[in-house]
Structures are given as structure tokens and as C-alpha cells.
Amino acid sequence: MSEQHEGEVLAVPKVRTDPGREAIKAILADPEGTVIGLDFDGTIAPIVPDPERAHVDPAAVAALSRLGALVKAVVVITGRPVRTAVRLGGFRDHDGLRQMTVLGQYGVERWDAADDRFSGQPEPPEIAEVEAALPDLLAQLGLSGARTEHKGRAIGVHTRELPDPGGAFTELLPALSELATAHGLRLEPGKYVLEIRAAGSDKGDALRDFASEVKARQIIFIGDDLGDLPAFDAVRDLRDQGTPGLLICSASDEQDALADHADLIATGPSGVAAWLTELADALDQQG
């Protein structure tokens, strides 16, 4: 590929690190060996008050549909139930995503577009126990207005719609941590959401396993908050083992926890969609 085309891919937004620049070169030279991994909320779908209305940015889906025919694989790794992510993503409606995989509940659930097949593990009984305990706990803290979301193997408590979302998040953190520990579960903080979930794999485990499964020669991962740090760590581990990797942070006013760890920063889902489109354009031009 010409230097001009490589520069176009680096321009929106700018790659900041030497490992990132090396990864870009490898991706452009060998797209057929590249896995594109992405988080869902805050990365390709906007963060909205009602999680059931968080549809994927149409520009991101369009870009991924183009890239799906050019790269080794596209995989979405999310804390959401896999069926919810597939529905809100509209992934079934795009021919370019026929080889896409969605890993839900941090890798415990799976959907493969090739045969439209869902698989996963049952909900542990402790989740129902936590759900039953939450109303009294929230009432004791004066936070009954917090939205709760049953996610199958997890329960999310959202503070975004409260008068002081940051203060409520801080107040809930120790109480929900204690509740999770009492039931043998773990607490996962996010953007104005605290998620109590079953122990098991994290996004790093899911990404490593998928990269090994498809024999990725390069890897991209795009995420936005603390739950994506294990996937960032997995990419760094793969780099150390000789697999080029590119880390992209989808940054926002609410959360920039990944910014210091990223090779490249995009401005929210629209910025991610723009970068994916630039990459698809560059690969089309060189093909």
C-alpha cells in the first residue's frame, strides 16, 4: 500500500505509539490474517439511559459489513446477553457479516452468524438472589430510582438517570461489592453502571481464545471502559508473543479509563465508525 493510503488510515484518529504503527502496517499488509474485536456499548453503540434502546451506529455496522469480507474475522465481545447484542446490532441483516461472531456475558455465550446458532451456560441461582435483595438495599441508600437490568448471568445497576449519577455510583460501589462477595459473585464497574455477575471468563480470556481459534496473525481491539481492560491486556500479551496488535479507545466525557493504554483514541461510537470506514476504504483501494 502507498504511504499516502497508510497516512489516510492513521489520520482519523492519529496512531500515537510505535507498537500501534507497526500493527497498522501489518494489518494493511495482511488483512486476511486480521481479527477485529470490539466492545458493544460505548464503542459501536451509544450509551443511552435505556439500555434496550442502544442500537449500533449504522455507520459502524456498514463499515464492519465491508470489513467482514476483507479480514479474517469480526468478533463483538460484550457483557450483554448475546441475544440482546445480536438484536440491537442488527447483525443478521448484513451479508458482509455472515462470518461474524458475538461473544456475550464476557465470553460465556456465543452466536455465530454463519449458522445463526446460539450457545451458552445457564443462569446461576445466585443472580436471582441478588436481584431479590437489590430493592431493599437501594431503598436503604435512598437510591430506589436507580435502574436495574437483568442480563441473564448478571444484574446491572445504572445510576445515569439519577440526579447525581457520579455520587450515586460512588455510594453504591462498596455496598454492591459486599453484596456480590456475599453471593460468590464479582462486581464489574462501567460507565455509571455497576454490574454484579457470575465468576468466569473476562473479555481478555474471550479474546485470547477466539484469536487462537481462528489463528489470528494480527488483532485489533476497540473498547471504552474498565471492563475492556482485560482485552487490552490480552492484546499486549499477544504482542509480546509476536502477534501485532492495535488498541483503540472509544473515549467520552464520562469515561476515558483506557486512553492511557491505547495506541489510538476515537471520539465515541461515531469516531470508531469513522475509523472503521477509513480502514475499509484503505483496504478496498489496495485490493
TrEMBL record:
GO terms for biological process: trehalose biosynthetic process. It comes from the Bacteria. The keyword Magnesium applies. The keyword Protease does not apply. Its EC number is 3.1.3.12. It is an enzyme of class 3 (hydrolase). It catalyses: alpha,alpha-trehalose 6-phosphate + H2O = alpha,alpha-trehalose + phosphate. Pathway: Glycan biosynthesis; trehalose biosynthesis. Keywords: Hydrolase, Magnesium, Metal-binding. GO terms for molecular function: metal ion binding; trehalose-phosphatase activity. Its cofactor is Mg(2+). Pfam families: Trehalose_PPase. Belongs to the trehalose phosphatase family. Removes the phosphate from trehalose 6-phosphate to produce free trehalose. This is Trehalose 6-phosphate phosphatase. It comes from Microlunatus elymi. The lineage of its organism: Bacteria, Bacillati, Actinomycetota, Actinomycetes, Propionibacteriales. The gene is otsB.
